[in-house]
Amino acid sequence: ITARKAAERSLIAARDEAERANRAKSEFLSRMSHELRTPLNAVMGFAQLIERDAARRSEPLLHERARHILRGGRHLLVLINEVLDLSKIEAGKLAVEHVTCAPWELVTEVASLMRLRAAAKGLHLECRCDGPLPATIRSDPTRLRQILLNLLSNAVKFTARGEVVV
After folding, report:
1. How far apart are CA 125 and CA 165, in angstroms?
2. Is residue 156 within 8 Å of residue 116, measured between CB atoms?
3. Does the model's pTM come out above 0.70?
4. Where are the beta strands (DSSP E) in 15-157?
5. Is the dihedral angle over the CA atoms 68, 47, 39, 79 positive or is it negative?
6. Which residues of 78-90 are buried (b: 16+ CB within 10 A; e: fewer)?
7. What's the mean pLDDT in 64-91?
8. Residue 108 pLDDT greater than 70, yes or no
9. What angle do helix axes 141-158 and 60-84 make, rounded to 10 degrees?
10. Measured between alpha carbons, how far apart are the two ends of the chain, in Å?
């Protein structure tokens, strides 16, 4: 009985320590999200100003570059929010969206984000649609975008030369 009681106390102590560590992690993630959002909001604000000025001055290249920054910034903001959802995932309470979205738009958006990285490696990145693709689907566009971004990022990372085709 003494050994069993000691084992129970040990398990209780381990559980309590794990709960403390989990609370510390959640607090850290909450603080980090704030620290990441503050400069990101500044970057996005200046990108919006550049985009507006470029449109007003009819500078299409600068306008397009500002739009790339804004798309990347919005995606980064979504990722920061996803990090905060870790606690929901751990609790089994993460809600998956089921909204209407355009799959081809998601593919081309992600491809445009990755095109500069591909070009920096000397790769050509191309999007093709060889078969029927529905104009809209019901999905979670944030998670679908993240899946596509991960796949394309890996394709660019692990392709030594040539092209990456989506």
Report:
1. 6
2. no
3. no
4. 99-101, 124-126, 137-139
5. negative
6. eebeeeeeebeee
7. 80
8. yes
9. 110
10. 63
